[in-house]
Design goal:
15 helices, Potassium Channel Kv1.1, Chain A, binds zinc ion, single chain, 3 domains, about 425 residues, mainly alpha, 3-stranded mixed beta sheet
Length: about 425
């Protein structure tokens, strides 16, 4: 009989895993993708949500990325040297410190190094090399492409990067983030333009079709891709498009989400970009609201002195009824759009594009033909009001300020220079 307390609640039943295990043959097939020639280093990765153990070449990786080189050949004294017993290691570190005459200046190894720390080999030149690299946090499909290029497996490099969730830029965006993180954008540069064309010409989900007016914005992901690979013109077009399409949602917990289409604006974005897009969005919304509120103000506050007394300012025939209908329909339209009583730009949560469209679709009524009191001539009121909201909004939307910050342009210039042949 076991010694468990009989009154203790029963242990929760283990919930069986629903996901099927990958058959061994398939698992080996996936592993094979990550096994490269002249491999001397173990690589841990996650590919299609499954753990992968691959083998890679430390030389190929070091040439591909200066960051990977530092991972593989760490420029510091390791905490754990697997080649030597613990006593000998400590002695060696002490002796080295004595020789340099700088005892106490170098970091001292902790008594108990973390168990998950990668194992390291001592090299004949006195340096160290790790035996295992852990890329499990990175996207496996993007990682595989990087390694295929680094290991010169050009025949395996896809003509079109794979889709995820119907999004043709998903893996591309992951790849760009890794190129940024590992400082290896120039490694993939020869394939970038082909991948862009293939992604933008390929099949798209409903969301992406809906944004076809500006192909450079797929949920904001292209902005990061353009920024990493120095595609300045595309970045500028995409940023301008994002200013017009981005909108705000406040969640129950009080947090704000910035969205384009049905998706959140990606967390991974060039520094300062989202803030600048929002700043431009607010400026545009204020300008559009100012257009309609100026008309309302003109009607209520405007005075036209004629014949010795003040006349209605909006009716060409000084008809009070005409003025009332024009004013009433303007205010009713604004009320139905939740823009009346007047709001400020921070209170509007939809996109600039939506506001512009709503304003352009407003219908301002006027009265039918009337007779002049003195000569009985027919007066038409089609041109009364002088409210040309549609034209004013159109005019504003055509000219758009540049939301690209100088440091974005500088970053893209530097990226491009790295790809260009040296002069
Ligand atoms: Zn009139």
């Amino acid at each position: 009989m076991d010694d468990q307390d009989a009154t203790a609640p029963p242990a929760p039943r283990r919930i069986p895993r629903t996901r099927k295990r990958l058959p061994l043959a398939m698992s080996e097939e996936v592993n094979k993708k990550f096994i490269f020639p002249n491999a001397d280093l173990m690589l841990l990765a996650t590919y299609e949500k499954r753990p992968v153990k691959g083998k890679v070449s430390s030389v190929a990786m070091s040439l591909a990325s200066p960051v990977w080189q530092k991972f593989i050949f760490p420029p510091f004294v390791p905490f754990q040297d697997v080649d030597k017993p613990k006593d000998e290691r400590n002695t060696e570190i002490e002796e080295e410190q004595d020789d340099n005459g700088q005892a106490g200046l170098r970091p001292h190894p902790p008594a108990d190094p973390p168990a998950d720390r990668p194992k390291q080999l001592r090299l004949s030149n006195g340096g160290y090399m790790v035996q295992e690299l852990d890329f499990r946090e990175d996207n496996g499909a993007a990682l595989l492409v990087l390694h295929q290029i680094a290991h010169l497996q050009f025949r395996n490099i896809p003509f079109r990067l794979p889709d995820r969730f119907g999004c043709p830029s998903y893996i591309f965006n992951k790849l760009a983030s890794m190129c940024d993180l590992y400082d290896c954008a120039s490694l993939v540069k020869p394939w970038v333009e082909n991948w862009v064309v293939a992604a933008q010409d390929g099949p798209r989900s409903a969301d992406h079709v809906a944004w076809s007016c500006c192909h450079t914005v797929d949920n904001g992901k292209w902005l990061f891709i353009d920024w990493v690979f120095g595609r300045e013109q595309s970045f500028e077009e995409g940023a301008k498009c994002a200013v017009r399409k981005i909108y705000v949602r406040r969640y129950l917990d009080g947090t704000l989400r910035y969205k384009i289409g049905s998706r959140n604006f990606p967390k991974l974005a060039p520094p300062g970009l989202l803030e600048n897009l929002l700043k431009h969005r607010l400026r545009d919304i204020k300008a559009l609201l100012d257009i309609v509120y100026a008309h309302e103000k003109r009607i209520t506050e405007g005075v036209k002195e004629e014949f010795g007394w003040s006349q209605p300012i909006v009716c060409n025939h000084y008809n009070r009824s005409c003025e009332a209908i024009i004013y009433g329909s303007l205010v009713l339209e604004l009320t139905s759009l939740k823009l009346w009583p007047a709001i400020i730009e921070h209170e509007y949560s939809e996109s600039v594009e939506e506001l512009a469209e709503s304003l352009q679709n407003m219908t301002i009524h006027h009265i039918g033909p009337t007779k002049d009191l003195f000569d009985g001539k027919i007066e038409t009121h089609e041109n009364c009001g002088g409210i040309n909201i549609r034209e004013q909004v159109q005019e504003y939307m055509v000219k758009q300020a540049d939301p690209v910050l100088p440091h974005h342009r500088e970053h893209m210039r530097i990226q491009r220079e790295r790809f260009e042949p040296a002069k």
